[in-house]
Design goal:
- The chain has helices at 2-12, 27-58, 79-91, 135-138, 289-302, 317-322, 339-342, 374-382; strands at residues 95-106, 111-124, 130-133, 147-152, 158-167, 172-177, 204-209, 217-231, 237-244, 256-258, 264-271, 284-288, 308-309, 312-314, 329-334, 349-350, 357-358, 362-366, 369-370, 389-396, 399-406, 408-409.
- The termini are far apart.
- Strand 20 and strand 21 form a beta hairpin.
- It has 410 residues and is an alpha+beta fold.
- The strands form five sheets. It has a six-stranded antiparallel beta barrel with strand order 1-2-3-6-5-4. Strands 7-8-9-12-11-10 form a six-stranded antiparallel β-barrel.
- It contains eight helices and 22 strands.
Length: 410
């Protein structure tokens, strides 16, 4: 029993710690370590000496007597630079920021606070202080409570404005300074108006606006193409659009597109971009000045744009061209009891006897003006006055004829 207990006690006794053996290095390893240390020391000594030598060669690092360098005088501006500088000086007072501000009451005492919910650009149209911008810039004002449209002028003073009227189908709106927020008369500088029917591809253009809130930003480019179709906020086509390469971005909407003389030739309204949140890739679009002049004048007269209507739905132009109609626009259908229907014009239909599709009337002219494309048709129809007569030149059954109708719309 005792021997068993003794053995058991020995098994339960804690193990004794052994002291570590001293680390010993062989002579060869010691020699190698010493050699490496000497090599590193020599390299450090050489690097330090080289650095000091370079410093001595180039002079001291600091010079308490250092003076400002004398700048090289600038070269005179060349002709293109002078043109851009003078244009900006001339047009700058006419360009404004258009901010959409919502007033909210917050805090324990219901204090009013303002939050900017949108921004765009615009320009002063006339001596009475009317301002033109895009409709989509101010579209939310009617639909959301406590919204205010405010413009910031070139002198950075801000003024509340009223909406005179709008033409959503042309993406245009007219504003005017509120009577209680009138700027000094001398600061109201209307923009110089140009034309758009006589533009050329390759012509130089400038844009001034408020991209991303960066007010009075000017960019330049060229007219890349003409007679582009722009989609309005109501998804109706705006014919005769100007495609250009001057950089425009979100916030440029409603700002002026200018020729080299600083004349308004268009209103910047859209860009093509790879993504919904993307920026400029060199493809911008502007509403042509001739259309702007017509629509803005109508808005000032009555609060809205006149909408002449012939009661015609046109067939898709690309499909028409694939069907080997190389000019003109074809009537797909007419509005029942509308102007075209009353005048006896025909749309596309199916022959009840043969079951084959028959072409509609091909419109090749209106009031003596040639109609080759949908853009031509839209441009000419916009000039018509509701209630007046219009003479359409059509081709039916390979024969040309003229049909007179009374323009509808209001």
């Amino acid at each position: 029993m005792n021997s068993d207990r003794h053995d058991e006690d020995e098994d339960n006794r804690p193990a004794q710690r052994r002291k570590p053996e001293p680390y010993s290095v062989s002579p060869a390893v010691a020699f190698l370590l010493v050699a490496v240390g000497l090599a590193l020391g020599a390299a450090a000594f050489w690097a330090g000496g080289h650095f000091l030598w370079r410093a001595n060669q180039n002079g001291p690092l600091l010079d308490p007597n250092a003076k400002l360098r004398e700048a090289t005088p600038p070269e005179p501006l060349d002709a293109m630079e002078r043109e851009a500088v003078e244009l900006f000086k001339k047009v700058k007072p006419s360009v404004v920021n258009v901010d959409i501000v919502q007033v909210r009451r917050t805090g324990w005492d219901d204090r009013p606070s303002e939050q900017q919910t949108g921004a765009g650009s615009g320009f002063i149209w006339d001596d009475d202080g009317r301002i033109v911008t895009n409709y989509h810039v101010i579209a939310d004002v009617k639909n959301r409570p406590n919204m205010t449209v405010r413009v910031v002028m070139a002198d950075r003073h801000a003024y509340d404005v009223d909406v005179v009227g709008a033409a959503p189908e042309y993406d245009l709106a007219v504003l005017k300074f509120s009577p209680e927020h009138l700027p000094p008369k001398e600061t109201i500088k209307k923009i110089e108006l140009g034309t758009s029917h006589d533009l050329f591809v390759g012509q130089k253009v400038y844009a001034i606006g408020n991209p991303f809130g960066l007010s009075l930003t000017m960019t330049s480019g060229i007219i890349s193409a003409l007679d582009r179709t722009i989609e309005s906020p109501t998804h109706t086509p705006i014919a005769g659009g100007i495609q250009h390469s001057a950089a425009i971005n979100p916030g440029n909407s409603g700002g002026p597109l200018l020729d080299k003389s600083g004349r308004l030739i268009g209103v910047n309204t859209a860009i093509t971009t790879p993504s919904s949140n993307g920026g400029n890739v060199g493809i911008g679009f502007a509403i042509p000045a001739d259309l702007v002049n017509q629509v803005v004048t109508q808005i000032i007269q009555s609060g809205r744009a006149k909408r002449p209507d012939l009661g015609i739905k046109l067939y898709d132009q690309q499909k028409l061209r694939r069907a080997r109609y190389d000019h003109g626009v074809m009537i797909e259908r007419t509005t029942p009891n509308g102007p075209a229907d009353k005048a006896g014009l025909r749309g596309m239909r199916v022959n009840q006897r043969t079951g084959l599709a028959e072409a509609g009337d091909l419109i090749v002219g209106i009031n003596g003006e040639t109609v080759d494309t949908v853009e031509d048709y839209e441009r000419i129809v916009r000039k018509l006055e509701p209630g007046t007569q219009a003479k359409l030149t059509i081709i039916r059954d390979d024969q040309e004829r003229e049909v007179t109708l009374t323009v509808g719309g209001s």
